[in-house]
Each structure stands twice: as structure tokens, then as C-alpha cells.
Amino acid sequence: MQRLSIRLFGPLTIVDGPRTLGARDLGGSRPKQVLEILLAARGHLVPSDRLAELLWGPARPRNPAGSLQTFISVLRQRLVPDRDRARELIVTEAEAYRCSADLIDVDLDRFDALLDQSAHQPTHQARRSLAQALTLVRGEVLEDEPYAVWAQELRGSYQGRILGAHLDAATSALAELDYPDALANAEAAARLDDFSERAQRCTMLALYGLGRHRDALATYRAFRVRLGDELGLEPTAETRALESAFLRQQEPRSLMPRPIRPRTEQLGDSPARLLGRSSELDALDRAAREALNGSFRLIQIEGDAGLGKTRLLDEFARSLVGVRLGYASCSELERHLPYVPLAAALRDALAGVHLDGSQPPALSRILPELRPPARSHELTEIDALEALVKLVDEHAPLVLVLDDLHRADHETIAALHYLQRRCAGVAVAVVTAARIEPTADDHPVRGLRPDAVVLLRPLTHADLEPLGINGLHEATGGIPHFVATVSGSPTASTALVETLLARCRAEGAPAYRVLLAASVLEQPFDPESLATLLQADAGELARNSSACARAACCGWTDSAFASDTRSCVLRCWPASRRLADACSGPDYSTLRSNRAPRRLTMSCAR
Length: 606
Description:
Blueprint: E1 4-7, E2 13-16, E3 19-22, H1 29-40, E4 46-47, H2 48-56, H3 64-79, H4 83-89, E5 90-93, E6 96-99, E7 104-106, H5 107-118, H6 123-135, H7 149-175, H8 179-192, H9 197-209, H10 213-231, H11 237-247, H12 263-266, H13 278-292, E8 297-302, H14 309-319, E9 324-329, H15 340-349, H16 381-395, E10 398-403, H17 410-422, E11 428-434, E12 452-455, H18 461-464, H19 472-476, H20 480-486, H21 492-506, H22 509-518, H23 527-534, H24 538-544, H25 546-552, H26 560-572, H27 574-583, H28 595-605
Parallel strand pairs: 1-7, 8-11, 8-12, 9-10, 10-11
Antiparallel strand pairs: 1-2, 2-3, 4-6, 5-6
């Protein structure tokens, strides 16, 4: 059967052989929106209640189920003239709908595949993959739905991926001394994020390589002024160093990045490859061996952000030889979609295995590409879980790795618990990584009872001694993410601050504003003081700022790392330094009336 080609970059476009359909050809805005929501689910079931919530919010019609049935009927009629094919494309399940992923080609899937492919390739091949991915970008994702929340979430995630693709393409072009292509991609990245220092550095390097030395310096100076005026910040040391190199008229090639190596080379042995984590890796290996000898094990790595959970999972996965391995990460954006990370891990583990009609029909609830029977609405959740048990048993020994389990959907977590109970004598290891402490008390991940727990803590002074860097533990608090960032850098504290800023900016403008305000307070501080500075409700602030506090470590009041981090931030943030001086005055309430806090609020909310 011919596959539909669907483009979500730019206006919705559907190509079916000689027929091309647009957003206005689907029978109205509601049928079109239903299709887009189903496409965003990537072949997974979308419950009717979820569809109704996304379409109408609290203002639902009297009979939302009947309205949805009407939209689906209209959509099928407009998509393809063949009724049977239409029903195979848009599938009705028990109180849910889905698109058949095996009957459509979506440009977002192709874009993702090319980006992932580029990460494993040497420079010249990666450039081709990145260029192919960027040719798919014909506009904003679902640009015909500028205000729908569900479209904004998907659009936001791809804005970041497109920015990253342009930056990688610019860096790769610089490495091969293709300055015109580097400049085009760097300028495209700067248009997407005019405060991205990496985009500015790539632009400066490309201009310098082209012999446009004055333009390179002008780019730096304009960025420095904009950064100071709008955010009260200075460029990082790495960016400032480029200006100095330009003024010295340093040879251009010496400034360019080195070619990107294949991942196999990047992950080669290095002094800090598993610094201080040998015992944790040994514990993982022992638990996995017990499982693969015929005793199911649910193994969980627990620890705060930045402690190296993902790195430990990667090293563990690389150590496995001769066993089926499936690896997947859980995403906040896909939390409402059932079984997405579990299905991804199973597909990875069973790549090359043909799952034919001998599989239980209920397995299609987890792997939707397995075409369900006509009466699939009669299949229960227990049927699906039993089908999963059968599949795992048939293909054991098996290792499934799930990163960021605290972001998983409830169904995936429930399925792991079910496997733990039903597969006691099966050679299967399920290895997960999760942040437990920040989760709510009723979060389902807290209900799991792992057979083995590997708890990650910050590295000690002794762990960091082999690197031979004075003051490294004090500068990083033993957090592996920061150790990797600053080790080998002559300006460790500045590199650390740049990492902190990047992490906090990724949390969004409100969280970024919280960090900037928190950096001026005496440590430790209470929520009321921060709320006074921001003129916000203390309870709401405490609920909304936890992610930024973890990212910036400003809530870690029991270690020298918190103080060092704060001093680094203050050194690099002139506006924060001025506010810190104001905080030392006798009348703290003046902060609410002075111009500086108002300017801070406006610039960070931009």
C-alpha cells in the first residue's frame, strides 16, 4: 500500500501520489487539528478524553465523543477516497484514536533520523546529513496552529533541534574551512536565538576566515553591547578570547574547531571516562549478570541532575557483548502518550527481528505498528501486558535501558512493575535512571521496588585527584557534569558559569529570572526573601523555581560549592553585582523601588 507523505514543517501538507492536500482540504479546522494531534503522537494511541482536552479545554460541547466521531469521519473522507484504506490510516480503538505509523512518512521523523545519524558520523558525512535535515525545514512546525498549546509544545522542541542543527552544521563547516557555509548556518542560528554565544562565535570565526576582520570585530562588539544592555551580562571568556585573537591577527586556521570524529572515537578511553564510578559500574555489571543468568532484575540508578546517570548508563551499555540491548530516554513532552519509551527500547532491542502475526493481537497497544485486529477494542490492558511478557520471554536474554524514568508515562512504569512480578525466572535486566528526590510523593516512579539500586553522589576530593587540577572540587562540588566542563580549561570558574547559565536558560525565562535574583541574596536564603525581591508569591515561587534551583545549585547551602558558584555568577554578571551591593544596605525594601530590579525583571522576561 502506498504511504502518505506528510509535512509538518511549515503549513500542513499531505502528498498521496498525484494528490496534494493542504490545511483547508480536510473538512474544517477541527478535523485538521485532530489529524495534527494524532500525527504528533507518532502512531501511539490518543485517548478521546485527551483529544477533547486539547481541542476544547474546559469549554467542551455536550457530546464531545460524538463530535470527535464526526471529525474522524470527515477526516477519513478527505484524506483518501478508499474507505478501507482511510480506516487503516486513522484507526479507532476503545475510546481512543491513532494514526498508523507504518502507512505514513512524516518529515519530523526523517529530520530526527538525520540528526541522530549525523551524531555518529565523521565531519564530511555529518555535514551531508545535517544539510539534508535542514532542507526539510520549510517553516515553523505546524505554523497554521500558532496558538494551540499542543502545537506550541511540539514547535518549541523542534526550534531547539533546528538551532542545534544549524550550530552543528556551522561548526562542521568551520572544521573543514568552508567559511561561506559556516557563515550561512551561524547567521541562521543567530536569527533563532540572538543571545546564543556559540552562534556569535561561529559567525565571528567565519567572517575572520573569509578575511573580513573588521566585520568579525564589529559582530563581537555589537553582541557585547546587546548582551550588556538587555541582560546585564558580559560575553564569556571563550568569546572574549576570540576578540583578542583577532586583534593579534592570529592565523585563522589555528582558531578553527577540529573535525568532528565518529562517536566511537569520542567515547574512547580518556582520563575522566569513568572517574570515581568504578564501584557503581561494577554493581551494575553484577546485577545484570544475575539477571542474564535467568533471574529478572529491575535495576535503578538514582541521583540528582548532573551526577552522571546517563554517562553511567552509556558505559554500562557499551560493556555488554552478545546480548540484545534496547536503549531509550523518556521525554516530558511524551508523558501523556502511553508506552512510548518502553516501545522505543523494545524496537531497539529487537531491531532485525520480524514480528509477524504470531504475536498476540494485544501487543499492538504497546507497539502500534503491529496492525491490531478489527475488534481490538475488546482487548484489555492486562492482555497487552501479558503479550509483553510473552514477547520478552521469547527473546530473552534481553537488556532494556530507560533513562530519565521520572519523565515516563504511567503505563510504562506500570508495565515495568508487571514485568518484575511476572518474569521472575526470565533472563531479562531492566536498567533505569531516575531523579527521585524532586518527584512528588505520589509519582508512580516512587512506587517501583527495584531489585538493586545504584545511588550516585558527588565525586570526592580523592576521586578528582588523578586530574591534577588545584581547587577542582571546590569549583565544581564534585558534580561530574561540571567536572567535565571545567577540567582542562584555564578559566574553570568562567566555564562553569557558562554551563550554569546555559542550563538555566534552557529552563525558560521565568527560571532564568529566578537564578539572577537568587544570585544577589545572602546564602542560604528563604523563599520569602526571594519573593520580596521578585514581588511574587512565595509559595508559587517555591513551586515554580525548583528546576532552576537544581540547575544553578543555588539551593545547595551545605557545601562550599554553593558559595563558589554564587561568587562565580556574581563575577560574570555586572547587574547582579550591583544588586548584591544594594542588598547589603540597611533597607532591603529599597530593592522594590529602585530601577535596577525593574530593569532586571524586564530584561530577563524578554
